[in-house]
Design a protein that fits this description.
The chain has 255 residues and is α/β, with parallel strands linked by helices. Helices cover 35% and strands 21% of the residues. Bound molecules: magnesium ion.
């Protein structure tokens, strides 16, 4: 069967539960759900993290379900799960490296650690939603606010060059296929707004709902969705991994 779709599946807060947990008892259903879509859709993880992180955090049998990964919030990708290819320019890479050093020098008490990235900055912290404004202000004070985008997930505040996001990354590898995004957080906003179809686990960040509704995509219960529709964001009854399994079964029915 021809693959008309590409699915972009977020990691933190979507595939993974809080604490980067993937419950072993859910893995078989997850793998079965992904494999049942494999003849209809190209399957990509779509994360703010890098290749090394994906390799460390996901079991090999689950990684094998994916064709590739959109990494570093669309600033890099892996077409084969083996290599990470950077999409940003040398100028953008330098801008981000310099900024990362300046932010490290500020020694924010909120930051637990700066995660390894090739071309973005990821400040892992306990309360990204609250810390985001402070990082945004730091970027402004350092004179780079117009050249970078500051966003956040459930685990980190992320900084990337302007113009990149998970949707642009997914589009880059889509080869003209219809795009489907499954995601939960502010760093998924473009994916949820611009993919041809968007779905979310129950824990979708509440602050995303107004912008989705404003753009003609109100959240509706997945149980009320009659097939794939671009004019709403069906939301699963389960959180994170369980919600993803629900959504994969829904997609199997309607793709
Ligand atoms: Mg997420």
């Amino acid at each position: 069967m021809k693959k008309d779709y590409i699915l972009g599946l977020d990691l933190h807060g979507t595939l993974l539960e809080p604490g980067e947990v993937l419950r072993p008892e859910l893995v078989p259903d997850l793998i079965a759900g992904l494999n049942k879509l494999a003849d209809r859709a190209v399957l990509f993880l779509c994360t703010g993290n890098d290749l090394d992180f994906v390799n460390r955090k996901l079991p090999a049998k689950l990684r094998l379900c994916f064709d590739g990964y959109v990494l570093e919030t669309g600033c890099s990708f892996s077409p084969d799960r083996k290599q990470e290819l950077v999409l940003t320019s040398p100028e953008e890479q330098k801008l981000l490296k310099d900024l990362e050093q300046k932010l490290k020098d500020q020694e924010f008490p909120e930051v637990n650690y700066f995660a390894h990235r090739l071309t973005t900055i990821s400040l892992f912290c306990d309360r990204p939603r609250e810390f985001y404004a402070e990082v945004n202000e730091a970027a402004r004070a350092l004179g780079v606010r117009d050249r970078v985008m500051v966003t956040y997930s459930s685990v980190a505040v992320d900084i990337l060059p302007r113009g990149y996001n998970k949707f642009t990354g997914l589009k880059k590898v889509a080869e003209g296929r219809k795009t489907i995004g499954i995601a939960d957080s502010m760093n998924d906003q473009a994916l949820l707004l611009e993919a041809d179809f968007a779905l979310a686990p129950k824990n979708l960040a509440p602050e995303l709902k107004p912008s989705l509704a404003d753009r003609g995509r109100p959240v509706i219960p997945l149980a009320h969705a009659q097939g794939l529709q671009s004019q709403s964001v069906p939301i699963a009854s389960g959180r994170e991994t369980e919600g993803v399994i629900e959504i994969l079964a829904f997609l199997r029915k309607y793709l």
